[in-house]
Each structure stands twice: as C-alpha cells, then as structure tokens.
Design goal:
The protein is mainly alpha-helical. It has helices spanning 2-13, 16-30, 35-62, 64-73, 85-93, 99-115, 129-145, 151-183, 193-211, 223-230, 236-250, 255-297, 317-336, 351-361, 366-386, 388-397, 417-428; strands spanning 81-83, 121-123, 188-190, 305-308, 408-410.
C-alpha cells in the first residue's frame, strides 16, 4: 500500500503540466475523439499551466521588493509561524495509510454519482485530490491523538474522503452558473477543494453581509466601468502599470525599481488571461466531446460538467487586479490583527487563487471584491493562526520537516472550512 501511494504521489507531484496531457488524452478517447485531437487538447492544457506557472513566478519576482519592504517592517514583531507551502502539507498527507486508495476510489465514486445523476460534475482535477487527502489525514491525526488506530480509523477516513469527493462535485454543480457566467467556460466548473469548500462559502456569506449595507450594496465598479470612465487609461496594461506604480511608491522604492515593478505587473495582467486562453483552447474540445457523448448515450437532458482547477479563474483581469491589491492589504492585516503570529508573505502565491473565487462570487465587481476580499483575508490569517499547532504537529509527526524550538508552521491550504471545523470539534471534545 505504501509503495502504491508513493508511485501515485510521484506521478501527481509532476504537476498538471505533465499529468494533464495524459488525463485529457484518455478522457478524449473515452468520448470518441480522434487521438491526435485529444492529445493536442491535453498538450495545450499542459502548456497553459506551464505558462501560468511562469507568470505567477514573474508576479512573485516582480513584487519581491514590495515584500522585502514589509518584511523589514516586521523587525521586532513576534512572528513565530512560518508558511511552508502546500508541498510540505501534501507530502505529509501522502504518509497516511489510506492515501493510496483515495484517488482510484474517488474516481470510481465520481463515475457512480454521475451514473445515478447525483451530480453532473466529472472531476478531472486529480492533482488537487491532495486537498481531500489532507482533510482526511487531519481526521486520521485526530484519531491518533485519541489513541485510536487500526482498521476503524482507516475505514472512517476513507469514507470521509469519498464523502468529500461527492460534496465537491455537488458544489461544483451549484457554482457552475457563477463560473460560466463570469469566466465564459461553457461546460465546466471548479472542483478544487480549497476553493469550493472554503473560499466560495465564506465569500458567499460575506457578500450577503455587504448586500444589507445601505449605499455600499449599490456600488458596482468593474474594469469595464473603469475602462469607460478612464478611456485609454482604463486599458488593462495601463491599469496594471498604475497598480504597480502605486505599490512601488508606497513602499518607497528607487525610481529604477518603481519602473521595473510597474512594467512587471502590467506584463502579469496582460499575460495571465492569455495563458488561461490556452487552457480553454485545450479544454473546449473535450467539453464539446463530453456533451455530444452524454447526449448520444444518456439523453439530451443529461449534462456533463468537467471539473477543473481553480487556476482557470486567476486569468480573469478583475481577479489579477484584485490579487495585486490584496497582497499589501494582507501584509497590513498581519500588524493589525490581535494575537497574530503569522507573517503572510508565503501566501502570495495563493492569493491569486483566492482572488479568482472572490471575483466570481462578486460577479467581477472590483469594489465589492475588495471589501469581501479584505474580510476573507482576515478569515485566512486568523484561521492560519488557529491551525498552526495542528499543522506543526502534523508535518513533524510525519517526519517531513524539522523545526527550531519555538517555531510553528502553517500554509494557506489549512485555512479550509472543513479542516477548521474538524479541529474545532476535536478541541471541543478535548481530543486536541
């Protein structure tokens, strides 16, 4: 079992760049596509993800002087919790005994649910199955702290993982109209757990709160409105340039660095949607083939949604702009939130994914997105402080990390509603 888990982990650790062409080719052949058309679709998806990876790296590099400015400002503050990223959490999650069965069993459960019309969503976002595995692993960790081991926790955690598979697909059905209306991705939805079971429900609630605030609930500022009001200055490239200038100036950069940051961010805003365009160029033929297949074999009333990565949302220009604005806001929150021990620089790579969901749930209203996004980042920072003890014990007990005394670890993926609820219940019953 451990050997099988290791093989699956090694394959998935390659990432979407390599895994997608294989998955999409197989899926395309199943839906009766020509081999070369199916392979091209998968290849374009892999290229798109590679492009997104490069653009996000450009974003992180471009904004590094801004990050360094705030990091220097943190001197003297007691930030004892560090961000170890999703890779460390994923490695720890794959150490659990049931890890090897989650992915193959999850795919089988997904197919059965579609067959019996419980869901319309077929989740191809398999490299993000580690989110499901992570939540199940935390449950297994809670059992271990309660001195429970053996077949019973194994069975319970496996069933729990399959329950999450079902919930993610059902939520995928529900958010598909939002996803398709805002991003234009016909025949698809989002099935990344950190988005569908965390960002989406939290932002939904926050958005409903904004709905009851007089005056604020009527404001609708989107990039189309900005473009109309500002004319040529509303062009996405120029908006990115202006945002870059703003971030650089408020962090007191030198003139040379100011220009570098401004041009770099303008490049990110222009390039990100084009990379996502490649993703859609690859996914559209698969979506059409799936629709034709379901119509022929099941009936015209049977719709099939392809569940995809939240990365498809980060190319939205509202999402990109929102993520750039939320980065300094999130750092500022680190100094404001009482009792905070986490300095959120390591979260920068995750903020574009949060921003994509925020943009979707606020119908690309930049003003509302900024309000709900700020409140959501408060939730994230508070949650990561709350989850730090569990995150630290989890990764150290798995043997994937050694820490200096007094330090704790966390990662943005731990700020998940499912994981938080489990830990809250465990603490309520004094298991943790």
């Amino acid at each position: 079992m451990e050997h099988l888990a290791s093989i699956i982990r090694q394959v998935l650790d390659i990432g979407a760049i390599a895994v997608l062409p294989i998955i999409i080719t197989i899926l395309g052949l199943f839906f009766k596509m020509n081999f070369f058309k199916a392979f091209k679709s998968g290849l374009l998806l892999g290229i798109g993800f590679q492009g997104l990876k490069l653009v996000i790296s450009l974003l992180i590099t471009t904004i590094e002087p801004v990050t360094n400015y705030y990091a220097a400002s943190a001197t003297g503050y007691a930030f004892t919790t560090i961000d170890v990223g999703w890779q460390t959490l994923s490695a720890a999650a794959w150490m659990t005994p049931f890890a090897a069965v989650v992915l193959p069993l999850g795919l089988i459960v997904n197919i059965i649910l579609i067959k019996f019309k419980v869901t319309k969503t077929f989740n191809i976002d398999i490299w993000n199955y580690w989110h499901i595995l992570m939540a199940s692993s935390i449950l297994y960790y809670i059992f271990s702290r309660a001195d429970m081991s053996g077949a019973v926790p194994f069975a319970i955690c496996t069933v729990f993982a399959m329950l999450l598979v079902a919930i993610i697909c059902i939520v995928g059905d529900k958010i598909a109209p939002f996803w398709q209306r805002n991003f234009g991705y016909e025949g698809t939805t989002c099935t990344t757990m950190s988005s569908t079971l965390s960002a989406v429900p939290v932002v939904y609630v926050l958005n409903k709160i904004v709905d009851i605030i007089p005056g604020v609930n009527k404001v609708d500022i989107n990039l189309s409105w900005i473009n109309k009001k500002l004319g040529p200055l509303g062009d996405p490239a120029l908006v990115g340039f202006i945002v870059g200038l703003f971030l650089a100036i408020i962090t007191r950069q030198t003139p040379t660095v100011i220009i570098q940051i401004a041009v770099g961010i303008a490049a990110v805003i222009v390039l990100m949607p084009r990379m996502v365009g490649l993703l859609m160029e690859g996914l559209t033929p698969i979506s059409k083939a799936a629709k034709n297949y379901m119509t022929k074999h099941v009936g015209e009333d049977q719709e099939l949604l392809i569940g995809t990565d939240a990365a498809f949302a980060i190319g939205d220009q509202t999402a990109v702009t929102l993520s750039l604005l939320l980065m300094p806001i999130t750092i500022a929150l680190a100094f404001i939130i009482p009792g905070n021990n986490y300095f959120p620089v390591g979260m920068f790579a995750s903020i574009p994914y949060f921003a994509g969901m925020i943009s979707m749930m606020t119908d690309r209203n930049l003003f509302r997105g900024l309000i709900t996004g700020t409140l959501y980042m408060v939730f994230i920072v508070v949650s990561l402080n709350f989850m730090a003890d569990v995150g630290t014990s989890f990764v150290t007990s798995a043997g994937v990390l050694e820490l200096e005394k007094g330090l704790k670890v966390t990662a943005a993926s731990l700020a998940n509603v499912v994981d938080i609820l489990m830990v809250l219940i465990a603490k309520l019953f004094k298991v943790l």
